[in-house]
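Q&A log
Question type: sequence-to-structure
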Amino acid sequence: MTTLVVCLDRTDDVGRKTGLRSPVVGWEAVRALVTDVGLADPEDSGVNTLLESLRVAQNLRDENEEVVVAVVSGDHESMVSADRAVAKQLDDLIAEYDPDSAVVVTDSAEDERLIPIVESRVRVDSVDRVVVRQARDIESTYYLLKQFLADEELRQTVLVPIGLALLVFPVLAMRIGAAEGAAAITTVIGVFLLYKGFNVDELLTRFAHQTRESLYSGQVSVVTYVVAAGLTFVGLFVGALGVSNLGETPGVVIPATRFAFDSIPWLAMAALTASAGRLLDEAIGDDPVRTSFLNLPFIVVAVSLVVRGFSAYFLEQQGVIDPFVVPANEFLIFSNERFVMVAGERLALFVVTAIVISLVGAQVASSLSGSSEAAERSDGGSETELANGGTAAKTDVDREPGPPSDAAADSESEPVPDRRDPELTDGGAGANAGSDAGDQDR
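Response status: OK
Response body:
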């Protein structure tokens, strides 16, 4: 078993400092190269890489393995020419020594880019990266910064906001003051971080894609969504108008409750409009309507009734709204008396009505989904029956009745063979094989 211990030098530092051409092959040649590189540049980490290659080769040789140690260099003119030079040198080494595996020794992330070239030609058992102990932290930081600057997305996400902040801060400091400028920049950076943290850009892209698909496909929900948005704005305006009519009210509980009481009918209509459009799209489509879309309008009405009932209860307790008065004529009682509901009775009426509506919605959704599934099963069964049993039924009908013959009687007395018998379903292969064996015996 022959192992190739190869030291990679992509930028040809060894050749530029010593004037030697690669590849350099052999124990004595590499050891002499260590002296030449060390004399040319004692601070170069390539000296440690060459020594590490010799150490790995010595350890493998101590384990009774046949080892070939070599130094392969690229070209400093361009990365493409460097990679091609390394590939050519590796091809020459493999053709001459025919190694079974390779151990790669590098000293930088730049040289590690050559590992795929080595792997494409010989099996790589190990990769040994040499880092000088005194400069480990500095070198690691350098390569991290280098990889960071090579990533375009990270540059745009981090460097661009920092650069803009450094440019804008002096202008804001001169115009509105240093503290106000720092506060404004901090606010903008915070909004940007939240924007990236919550993936708002991806959500907006997905929303734009869905909107475009809906417009091109002619879905009804596009119109209903626009109407729902208008009703939502109306509800927010009505809620804000109701809060403004309260005047000077201490605290935020009563204004918030008044806002919910006034805006919930419009918000419920907006939700019903949106759900109706989505339900129409599902009904127009080929797929059956899902239960969730059937149940959604009932849930919207039930939730709006509950919110309206609780908000009315709190507002009536605080004297903001009047009790609910029902005229007697509404109950077909021809009198001048009126029926007045107190806050608790109104809340109970709204809650009970919401529960009833939710139950009705669940029942309607389950019944409609069940009927659609039954229709699908019946259609599928009829199609299957027509496809599988239509010929047999026609044959039975067309067969003329007659007295049973002796052969028929014998067939009726004998058990019917299983149709899943492999000898019957394999096209008679078993029977043919048996007849062929009998012919050979004869």
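Response note: The CA atoms of residues 144 and 150 lie 10 Å apart.
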